[in-house]
TrEMBL record:
Name of the gene this protein is made from: cpfC
Residue ranges, annotated region (Disordered): 1-24
GO molecular function, one term: metal ion binding
EC id: 4.99.1.9
Subcellular location: Cytoplasm
Described function: Involved in coproporphyrin-dependent heme b biosynthesis. Catalyzes the insertion of ferrous iron into coproporphyrin III to form Fe-coproporphyrin III.
Family that this chain belongs to: Belongs to the ferrochelatase family.
Annotated Pfam families: Ferrochelatase (PF00762)
Biochemical pathway: Porphyrin-containing compound metabolism; protoheme biosynthesis
Record's protein name: Coproporphyrin III ferrochelatase
Length: 397
């Protein structure tokens, strides 16, 4: 007989029994039988571009004429976003590492906005008898678009496929400060700084810019748990700042001359009406003014991105590098994690920590903000425009 939970009990939709308690960290082993690799998706040809952008902006009533203003980024690269190819590589790398550890977990891959879609992946898993899924989303930080929207899509897919009550979907914690994610950024900044110093650029003439996707300020303020005052940029900005500080701390420990390097968090890829405030400053605006601060060389770090997808290839490799050239600056864009062995190993570490029920106190993290939650807290990462929709892997608000 089905009974509704008492009002005082947390409601965690579509969760494994172990995660359904709503505790922040699941510290008991969970017998998952498959991994769900969840990503954004991207077009793979010119004919895909506008249909893909319609998917991304669904429900917002944006006409195709305005979508075409963004489409030229994709058309510049033949209408092909690199993200699907990168996810194929990541899926293969995860499968190799999972097999090496003898974990016996298949990996199903599904996207939110382009094929293969999440519903295809979840149906495929269920058809194979794999009903206890652990999701790994290709996004490291807390915000609506980088966490809650994935969780809402998990719930939507389970409802639309009528697999709710049959399939459960938990999600690994946000991994912004997991060592496997931080290591590639540290190595990239270290190597770029060392290269400039070796070429005779003084340390005080080098600037490090950690760049991430801008989001509306109202959404940023609602990122992360509501019971913490994160400041203007919410948990989203706080997490990036903490990781940037840790990377620079490690670089200075290895290259003493780098201890005085200036750095800051910048934003990119904003969209929406000019009247809507988004997180600033913009990376290109900052680059333009760096010469007036005595800067000769800039290290551009795509801190908010796990791979070289369109926002990296266009907004940084094209626009930001051009801005640096126009400002007379030497510039290096450091690598994203991609399929770096440390990153791939780190993702599988996150999977194992849920399989084993690792205590929160024993989980590795590079900043004081971690380890982040396995089960998102009530009210986390609200979408100001749309409000709360049903979402898996978190306590319902």
């Amino acid at each position: 007989m089905h009974t509704e939970p008492a009002p005082s009990e947390p409601v965690v939709l579509h969760a494994s029994p172990e995660a359904a308690s709503g505790r922040p960290h699941v510290e008991t082993p969970v017998a998952y039988d498959a991994i769900l690799l969840a990503s954004f998706g991207g077009p793979e040809g010119q004919d895909d571009v506008i249909p893909f952008l319609r998917n991304v902006t669904r429900g917002r009533g944006i006409p195709d004429e305005r979508l075409e203003e963004v489409a030229h980024h994709y058309r510049h690269f033949g209408g092909i976003s690199p993200i699907n190819a990168q996810n194929r590589e990541l899926k293969a790398a995860l499968e190799v590492e999972i097999a090496r550890r003898d974990l016996g977990l298949p990996v199903y891959w599904g996207n939110r906005n382009w094929g293969p879609y999440l519903d295809e992946a979840v149906r495929g898993a269920a058809d194979a008898g794999h009903t206890r899924l652990l999701a790994v989303a290709t996004s490291a930080y807390s915000s609506f678009s980088s966490c809650r929207q994935y969780r809402e899509d998990f719930a939507r897919v389970l409802d639309e496929t009528q697999l709710g009550g049959i399939v459960t979907i938990d999600k690994v914690r946000q991994f912004f400060d997991h060592p496997g994610f931080v290591e590639p950024f540290f190595a990239g900044v270290r190597d770029a700084v060392a290269g400039f110093l070796d070429d005779g650029v003084p340390a005080d003439a080098i600037r490090v810019l950690f760049s991430t996707h801008s989001v509306p300020i109202d959404d940023a303020r609602r990122s992360g748990p509501r019971d913490v005052d994160w400041g203007e940029g919410g948990a989203y900005a706080a997490q990036h700042l903490a990781v940037g500080a840790r990377v620079m701390e490690r670089v200075a420990a290895e290259i003493p001359a780098a201890a005085t390097l200036g750095w800051e968090l910048v934003y990119q890829s904003r969209s929406g009406p000019p009247s809507q405030p988004w997180l600033e400053p913009d990376v290109c605006d900052v680059i333009e003014e760096l010469p007036s601060r005595g800067v000769e060389a800039v290290v551009i770090v795509p801190l908010g991105f796990v791979s070289d997808h369109m926002e990296v290839k266009w907004d940084l490799d094209t626009e930001a590098i051009e801005a640096a050239e126009e400002a007379g600056l030497r510039a290096v864009r450091t690598p994203t994690p991609g399929v770096d062995p440390a990153y791939v190993s780190g993702l599988v570490d996150l999977i194992e920590e849920r399989l084993r029920g690792t205590r929160a106190a024993d989980r590795p993290h590079e900043t004081p903000l971690g380890p982040w939650f396995d089960v998102c807290r009530p009210g986390c990462c609200e979408n100001v425009r749309a409000g709360f929709k049903p979402a898996a892997a978190g306590i319902a608000p």
